[in-house]
TrEMBL record:
Source organism (scientific name): Marinagarivorans cellulosilyticus
EC number: 1.1.1.57
Any Pfam family the entry gives: Mannitol_dh_C
Gene Ontology terms for molecular function: fructuronate reductase activity
PANTHER family in alphabetical order: MANNITOL DEHYDROGENASE 2-RELATED, MANNITOL DEHYDROGENASE DSF1-RELATED
InterPro entries: 6-PGluconate_DH-like_C_sf, 6PGD_dom2, Mannitol_DH, Mannitol_DH/Oxidoreductase, Mannitol_DH_C, Mannitol_DH_N, NAD(P)-bd_dom_sf
Boundaries of every Mannitol dehydrogenase N-terminal domain copy: 28-273
Protein name as it appears in the record: Fructuronate reductase
Limits of the Mannitol dehydrogenase C-terminal domain: 285-453
UniProt entry keywords in alphabetical sequence: Oxidoreductase
Entry keyword Oxidoreductase: yes
Length: 488
């Protein structure tokens, strides 16, 4: 079967194809972190802007870790197919990505690309851990190995923050116009977090560079939402049989998509609002709603579901106990939110249930469970802090923390080993081994990790006690039985 490429795309009649001339379109965006989510979200929006209006908004995409995506896309002229799975399937060829660069192979190429005269926007989807910051405080982690490297060797950066600072330094030296740095990751006030980390690293390099960044670079916050499970070999094979060409870079997504952007750009930008994005003065409340209701519930379902032997979120939602737990947890989180005028928070929760239940999406619980140490501070702990402040019911969050602690200990309810993917996985494993027969000490040691838990949150309203009790119950009777007891 033929591999997708530009020549083949001209003959495809079963898929929507780009309506702009890719060869004559200049790059206007550098994107750090060319994973499936970017291809299904920001690149998809940008593709539709160029379909509608044209414009020089091609994307130079950068992989900061491996050459995998480059290998998938380079042979396809950076074309790829987006498959929307819902009640009916929809496919289209996306052409907004022009080039893929691989940081470890040629870091200077990325720095030079950021300093290109046509570039107006630097965007990021590098996941929470990619910011090399302390999730509990939002400050740059100056002891992170990549940050230490970048401070001493900025000419060949390793971290996303290092690439941005190196590229901005090159722009300063070339006396180029202002530029926008736009985070599209699930972080509270992601623009402010990015700005803080960039300025802290820049200050350690050159105070003059930090001053230039303050004067010439903006950092709008964004809210991004689309469920994009990892593409698996079976997806590629089924797609090949159906449409008649092989696409190693295809992505699968749900039909729903949301992008809320603070209108704070240093230069021109694509007219994303014409293709469904929403521009606002402040994104914080929308970000809070999504983090607490969608992302927070997603994490709960991932940990509880995986422990109970559920492979996907749709599988989790087929279990009446876990579905009821989903509703109760979401309602608890919603009690901490004052929605903006005109926003129906109850309808939003109902919509989330429908999205979680989508059988076409094989969104693996293991995938969502990755990097919990970087996620739960913003997905759970800020909500929990608000619940504690109002003397609310903390039980659902204590259960969630217990499920997470069981997960990171390395075995599920059937005592099968879990491959824990987390920056602190080795620390978790060591604590679990040392406290194998003393759950109370294990919980206390995990709560003592200040990079995750603000210590002001602990020992209030018996949080540690409740968490320990739920963990003991999970160890003895399993996750489903513990959740059933909680829901009585």
């Amino acid at each position: 079967m033929s591999r997708l490429n530009s020549a083949l795309a001209q003959s495809v009649t079963t898929v929507q194809t780009p309506q702009y001339n890719r060869q004559k379109t200049k790059a206007g965006i550098i994107h750090l972190g060319i994973g499936a989510f970017h291809r299904a979200h920001q690149a998809w929006y940008t593709h539709h802007v160029m379909n509608q209006n044209g414009g020089d908004w091609g994307i130079i995409a950068c992989s900061l870790r491996s050459a995998t995506v480059y290998q998938q896309m380079a042979e396809q002229d950076c074309l790829y197919t987006l498959l929307e799975r819902g009640n009916t399937d929809k496919t289209e060829l996306i052409g907004s990505v022009q080039q893929v660069l691989v940081g470890p192979e040629n870091p200077q190429a990325i720095v030079d690309a950021i300093a290109g005269e046509s570039i107006k926007v630097i965007s990021l989807t590098v996941t929470e851990k990619g910011y090399c910051h302390h999730p509990a405080t939002g400050q740059l982690n100056t002891e992170h190995p990549d940050i230490i490297h970048d401070i001493n060797h900025l000419g060949s950066p390793k971290s996303a923050i290092g690439y941005i600072v190196a590229g901005l330094k090159a722009r300063q030296e070339k006396n180029l116009s202002g530029i926008t740095v736009m985070s599209c990751d699930n972080l509270p006030s992601n623009g402010l977090v990015t700005q803080r980390c960039v300025l802290q690293l820049a200050e350690s390099i050159s105070p003059a560079l930090a001053r230039w960044i303050k004067q010439n670079v903006t950092f709008p916050s964004t809210v991004i939402d689309r469920i994009v499970p990892a593409t698996v070999a079976n997806d590629i094979a089924l797609f090949e049989d159906k449409l008649g060409y092989r696409d190693e870079a295809m992505v699968v997504a749900e039909p729903f998509s949301q992008w809320i952007i603070e209108d704070n750009f240093a230069n021109t930008r694509p007219a994303w609002e014409q293709v469904g994005a929403q521009f606002v003065t402040q994104a914080e409340i929308y970000e809070l709603i999504k983090l607490r209701l969608l992302n927070g519930t997603h994490s709960l379902l991932a940990y509880a579901g995986y422990l109970a032997g559920k492979e996907t979120i749709a599988d989790v939602m087929q279990d009446h106990v876990l579905k009821k737990l989903c509703t109760a947890f979401m309602q608890s989180a919603a009690s901490t939110i004052t929605a903006p005028e005109g926003f129906d928070i109850k309808a939003y929760q109902e919509q989330l249930h429908e999205r979680f239940e989508n059988p076409g999406l094989k969104h693996r619980t293991w995938q969502i469970a990755m990097d919990g140490s970087q996620k739960i501070p913003q997905r759970w702990l800020s909500t929990l802090s608000d619940i504690i402040e109002t003397n609310g019911d903390i039980r659902f969050f204590a259960f969630a923390l217990a499920a997470w602690m069981k997960y990171i200990s390395g075995t599920d309810d059937q005592r099968r080993a879990i491959q824990v993917s987390d920056p602190l996985a080795d620390d978790f494993a060591a604590i679990a081994k040392q406290c194998a027969h003393t759950p109370t000490e294990y919980v206390a040691r995990i709560f003592a990790l200040e990079s995750i838990f603000p210590q002001t949150l602990l020992n209030i309203n018996n949080l540690e006690l409740f968490t320990c009790e739920y963990l003991r119950e999970i160890n003895l009777n399993g996750t489903l039985a513990t959740a059933r007891k909680l829901l009585r």
